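Work Package 3 (structural annotation) set out to generate three-dimensional models for the target panel prioritized at the project kickoff. During this period the team completed the workflow that converts sequence records into discrete structure tokens, so that structures can be stored uniformly alongside our sequence database. As a representative example, we reproduce one entry of 130 residues exactly as it appears in the project archive.
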Amino acid sequence: MTIGQVADHFGLPAHVLRHWESVGLLAPARAEGGRRRYTRDDLVRVASIVRMKQAGLPLPDIGEFLTSIHTAARKDVLRRNHRALQARMATLRSALDLLEAGLNCSHEDIATCPNYRAHLAELVDVQDSV
């Protein structure tokens, strides 16, 4: 596949694939005239990068994962980012719960709804020591 075909397939701008190549994440073969030719293995690699980016992994961690030949090193990258993703998911779940509380509120003013305010309590409540 050409760079344009791969970009279209994954819904990415071609410059993203070029950038990933410039930082060492991709190395597609070159055909006549130096044109990039992506194989199925390259597509698997692009898919890995896309999913890891969706999970919030930074490019250096993705590179570390992809270039390591040791399973333990790869698992270290995954473990480190697994914890970070769990924390982000908990934050997003809390934000979603707040929105749902507002949407499900039957009060005239959502901001005064007890259920809505209950979802804000941990941010509002001041400790006695303050």
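The chain has two domains: 1-58, 68-130.
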